[in-house]
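Possible regression after last week's pipeline update?

I re-ran a chain I had predicted before the update to compare outputs. Posting the input and the new output here so someone can diff against the archived version. Not blocking, just want to make sure nothing changed silently.
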Amino acid sequence: MIRFPWPALARTAVLAVSVLVLGACRPATDQALGTLEYDRITLPAPAAERIASIEVREGERVGAGQRLLVLERTRGDAQLAAAEAEVARQRQALEELRNGARREDIAQARANLAAAQAQARDARAYFERVQPLGARQLVSAAEVDRARAAAGNAEAQVAAARAALQELENGVRPEQVAQAEAALAAAEAQLRGQAETTGRLDVVAPRAGRVDSLPYRAGDEAPVGAPLAVLLVGERPYARIYVPEPLRPRVQVGQAVRVHVGADGQRSYPGRVRMVRSEPAFTPYYALTGKDAARLSYLAEVELEGEGAGVLPAGLPLRVEFGDAR
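New output (post-update):
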């Protein structure tokens, strides 16, 4: 009868079982963990206006162009009307310059010139009369000086009236027309901007999607730029994962993967890596060299493929396997 060394055999059996157990605990494929996400669109407040009404609920699906919220329009409509009035004023001012002076204005300028010429003739005649008398000292020198000054002033009035008439007859300068055109263009630009701002008081969905969040309620007055609504858009979600440093060299854009959604991982979908960040998402100060470098993690995104992925909600936990994705 053959006797076996039972203590040695027992130790061998225990070692074999331990190896099998450790092998079963080791993951069969490389994997990374993350969550299910959709692309998010944030709709900011175009103006600091009170929310008049909210047309949708959180979680509701909306179509492109569907109205989500309505802001008070009283102040916006008044500003829009003021901008329209300014455009009309600038347009009429430009037309006035282009049309030139009216015939009545030119006739008035000619009459003013004629009156100035008559006054100049009378002042010149009076000066010619008193000048010889002053030479014979029959009138004072001061009277002669006043007559000379009055004649000179009358001549200057004639020159001013003639220049005013010529200005009306020649029309406005091209530079004035250009300035009026620029002022009109500026007013029209302000009108377009105000019309855009007023039009955005009706907050609409830029794309089809699902309402994820409505931070404010009817009656609130959100500051300019505050998020009024957050939409989840896209036909299907994507997996946002964090790739550990030891796995990073083997993860490439376009690589086929298998995505297991949920804590139990029962739902499985094929996917493809669409983005991997070049910089680590988590970089502890001690995790730069040596063994600590394995603590680095790189953000990546995996696009889900296959049917049924479009109905999955955001935020579900998942794991991505970088092995065979068939």
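Follow-up from reviewer: compared with the archived run. Residues 1-27 have pLDDT under 50 and may be disordered. Marking as no regression found.
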